[in-house]
């Protein structure tokens, strides 16, 4: 099990010092397949720091390009979350019946039972395609997918391609107001980020393995396969924990390197989520107090900026 901890470290580190680290763990905790929780947290934190330093040391692309790429990935994932169940059911030809997530009608596709208003595709295919293209560094494929998201949101009513906006009612978001296909700030910001990436030589973009899609498939299974209710407090708080973990990871990476690239995705998500709350205050789901939510969305921005400046200040005397 100790080998699972090595996954937090970059490949170059694993090849050089992986066996040495495993030997140290085996010597320090003989007979145990897993170190104590405090040691696990320390190793995971060190792994994030090592990955962050490896990213900063890679001079193949400027920091701001990497930051915009990360922001586009975060926004594509944010746009996909409310439609995980929909895409899962469409891909496996499932009629969810009473487990449908707040659509205007119970029949989604020709095979669905009950009164049916046929639509050809789930809206979630657009952010999913955008996410896959961005993972592989194919911004020229992600750009038309993001543009199609804007079109689908702007022409939601009366269309049968994605149905009535693809999704109606509440989404999974416990940390902010619901985000639907009609939220053009999200799709517009994502499209702008993809346009910048497509114009800046796509060959310079970082390419991630398809293995990064494993969490997406797992999330689809949880949402669609297990029929988790979309407004379930447990699901919303689970998403909240994931978001806080991501913010802590960005802080650890910034503190280790003094680099500003992780500030860009945090700022993009905060702007989109804050805008949704301000525009739709009545739709806020109140799973957390309003002030707490705003602090969690906005406070990381100055915190990351100050952390980067301090780290750079410490690096100068060295």
From TrEMBL:
The keyword Transmembrane helix applies. Signal peptide: none annotated. It comes from the Bacteria. The chain crosses the membrane at residues 63-84, 118-135, 140-159, 179-200, 212-229, 291-308. The keyword Membrane applies. Keywords: Membrane, Transmembrane, Transmembrane helix. This is Integral membrane protein. It comes from Streptomyces olivaceoviridis (Streptomyces corchorusii). The lineage of its organism: Bacteria, Bacillati, Actinomycetota, Actinomycetes, Kitasatosporales.
């Amino acid at each position: 099990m100790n080998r699972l901890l090595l996954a937090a470290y970059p490949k170059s580190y694993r090849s050089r010092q992986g066996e040495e680290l495993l030997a140290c763990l085996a010597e320090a905790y003989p007979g145990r397949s897993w170190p104590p929780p405090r040691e696990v947290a320390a190793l995971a934190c060190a792994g994030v720091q090592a990955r962050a330093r490896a990213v900063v040391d890679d001079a193949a692309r400027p920091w701001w390009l990497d930051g915009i790429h990360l922001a586009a990935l975060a926004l594509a994932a944010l746009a996909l979350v409310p439609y995980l169940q929909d895409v899962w059911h469409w891909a496996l030809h499932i009629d969810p019946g009473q487990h449908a997530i707040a659509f205007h009608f119970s029949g989604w596709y020709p095979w669905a039972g009950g009164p049916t208003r046929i639509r050809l595709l789930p809206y979630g295919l657009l952010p999913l395609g955008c996410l896959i293209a961005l993972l592989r560094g194919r911004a020229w494929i992600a750009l038309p997918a993001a543009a199609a998201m804007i079109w689908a949101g702007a022409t939601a009513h009366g269309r049968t391609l994605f149905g009535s906006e693809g999704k109606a009612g509440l989404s999974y978001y416990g940390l902010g107001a619901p985000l639907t296909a009609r939220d053009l700030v999200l799709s517009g910001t994502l499209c702008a980020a993809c346009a910048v990436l497509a114009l800046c030589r796509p060959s310079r973009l970082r390419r991630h393995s398809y293995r990064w899609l494993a969490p997406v498939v797992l999330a689809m299974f949880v949402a669609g396969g297990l029929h988790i209710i979309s407004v379930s407090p447990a699901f919303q708080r689970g998403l909240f924990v994931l978001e806080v973990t991501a913010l802590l990871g960005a802080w650890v990476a910034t503190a280790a390197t003094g680099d500003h690239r992780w500030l860009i995705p945090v700022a993009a998500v905060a702007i989109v989520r804050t805008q949704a709350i301000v525009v739709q205050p009545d739709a806020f789901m109140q799973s957390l107090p309003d002030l707490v939510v705003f602090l969690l969305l906005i406070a990381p921005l100055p915190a990351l900026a100050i952390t980067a400046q301090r780290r750079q200040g410490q690096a100068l005397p060295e």
